[in-house]
UniProtKB/TrEMBL annotation:
Family that this chain belongs to: Belongs to the peptidase A1 family.
The species this protein was found in: Anisodus tanguticus
Keywords annotated in UniProt: Aspartyl protease, Glycoprotein, Hydrolase, Protease, Signal
Signal peptide range in chain numbering: 1-22
GO biological process: proteolysis
Entry-linked SUPFAM superfamilies: Acid proteases
PANTHER family: ASPARTIC PROTEINASE NEPENTHESIN-2, OS07G0603500 PROTEIN-RELATED
InterPro entries in alphabetical order: 4Fe4S_Fe-S-bd, Aspartic_peptidase_A1, Pepsin-like_plant, PEPTIDASE_A1, Peptidase_aspartic_dom_sf, Plant_Aspart_Prot_A1, TAXi_C, TAXi_N
Pfam families linked: TAXi_C, TAXi_N
PROSITE patterns: 4FE4S_FER_2, PEPTIDASE_A1
One Gene Ontology term of the molecular function aspect: aspartic-type endopeptidase activity
Annotated protein name in UniProt: Peptidase A1 domain-containing protein
Domain Peptidase A1: 82-446
Length: 451
């Protein structure tokens, strides 16, 4: 299989020329927009899908073991993700990418022969033969080790060795909870608005399952977009989820200088667990979530869920590709009980809860005025994130039912005790300016209208 892949890719990719030199700048701004695959579906169906995919995403993060490339998200129908457009090649080819802070690899759909199963729309692909700067990555190139971290150059390059080895880096296969993508690694010029970055490692995927676009990994790994650009931090402000194709966008800001932004609340990024066989943990952005309050009352959460142990279990991460915040059952149950105990006189709707996978859901059809408790996340160092009501309750379809937009493990079967206990999703970060200060190892945020 590997041999045939080599032959096919070498046929498709043409000879190449020297790289273009880069310019200097302190920041780069890229438009950030909502990515929606099927805006025609109603809100009720979208909530059900979003709860399902958030659960699947959390399930995969928590169960993920070692792989050749860190985990990336999978987007089925009706997922409201966030995308950016990047230009690769000479001349530049514009390609949409779904942003993901939980992976460290950048890849695009590639060649005219690209095949995507269970994909509902036309997908723009990168054409290597149309670029004079595209090169297949060699197996002796250190960047091949960024992808195949478990193998050494001798085992990767079985047919030759030394500086004159012409063998290419083995194909990558990225497996997800219910899909995959695969292809060959390239080095190519990334053409940004104010600079060109030559020799950028990017995946040329020739087949995928249920992938609406490429992935721009923003995680902590060497192959991620921030790492390869050498930025000192990045920030974004997520426009509101409306589950429709409004065309609204905000910006992803890549900061090459790394200065703190004014009026942000900061908490220190936590040290990632180092656990043999679970390299994916090194990619995530861990934050020190110390407590959760509902209506000003502290929720009693066992300490084991708030701090990761020596096996990498527990703790909290920020994950842009998780929609609804995930909580282990030991965290989620006390949180929803706090809501149920404080919401008086409004009946629950268990039938909607069973259909959507969200709970609690309340029927507000006969309520003249609805008052719901405030939800607040408290972080190490004193930073507090008070969520607007729209960030944690949503109307279920065209009904008079509202549901808490957070999820946990299935009510059936054992609790998923491995991996992070809390995964903070993008739905809860709507209309927040979020900053990853990589120079100072801090996570910052402030509420504002994103536009």
């Amino acid at each position: 299989m590997a041999s045939s892949s080599f032959t096919l890719f070498l046929y498709l990719l043409s000879p190449f020329f020297p790289f273009i030199s880069s310019s200097t700048s302190t920041t780069t701004t890229i438009p950030l927009s909502l990515f929606n695959i099927n805006p025609s579906q109603d809100l009720y169906s979208n909530l059900t899908h979003l709860a399902s995919i958030s659960s699947a995403r959390a399930n995969y993060i928590k169960k993920s073991q070692d792989s050749s490339v860190s985990t990336t998200p999978l987007y089925p129908h009706s997922y409201g993700g966030y995308s950016i457009t990047l230009s690769f090649g000479t001349p530049p080819q514009k390609i949409p990418f779904i942003m993901d802070t939980g992976s460290n690899f950048v890849w695009f759909p590639c060649t005219k022969k690209y095949l995507c199963t269970n994909c509902s729309q036309s997908i723009p692909t990168f054409i290597p033969k149309s670029s004079s700067t595209a090169r297949v990555l060699g197996c002796m190139n250190p960047k091949c080790g960024w992808i195949h971290s478990k193998t050494n150059p001798k085992s990767r390059c079985q047919d030759c060795s030394g500086p004159n080895c012409k063998q290419i880096c083995p194909p990558y296969i990225i497996l997800y909870g219910s899909g995959s993508t695969g292809g060959l690694a390239l080095v190519e010029t990334l053409d940004m608005s104010n600079k060109k970055i030559p020799n950028f490692l990017v995946g040329c995927s020739m087949f995928s399952s249920q992938q609406p676009a490429g992935i721009a990994g923003l995680g902590r790994g060497l192959a991620s977009l921030p790492s390869q650009l050498g930025v000192k931090g990045f920030s974004y402000c997520l426009v509101s989820h409306k589950f429709d194709d409004t065309g609204k966008s905000s910006n992803l800001v890549l900061d090459f200088k790394g200065e703190k932004t004014a009026n942000l609340s900061y908490t220190v990024l936590q040290k990632n667990p180092v656990v043999a066989g679970r390299n994916a943990l090194s990619v995530y952005y861990y934050v020190g979530l110390t407590k959760i309050t509902v209506g000003g009352q502290k929720v009693k959460i066992p300490y084991k869920y708030l701090k990761s142990d020596s096996n990498g279990n527990g703790g909290s991460i920020v994950d842009l590709s998780t929609t609804f915040t995930y909580m282990n059952r030991g965290v989620f149950e006390p949180v929803i009980n706090a809501f149920v105990n404080q919401v008086k006189g409004i009946p629950r709707t268990e039938s909607i809860e069973k259909i959507t996978g969200l709970r609690p859901c309340f029927n507000i059809s006969r309520q003249e005025k609805v008052s719901l408790p405030e939800l607040k996340f408290h972080f190490k160092g004193g930073a507090e994130m008070a969520l607007p009501l729209a960030n944690y309750f949503s109307i279920a379809g065209e009904t008079d039912v509202i549901c808490l937009t957070m999820i946990t493990d299935s009510a059936f079967g054992p609790e998923l005790s491995t991996g992070p206990s809390i995964i903070l999703g993008n739905f809860q970060m709507q209309n927040f300016l979020v900053e990853f200060d990589l120079r100072n190892e801090k996570f910052g945020f402030r509420q504002q209208v994103c536009k």
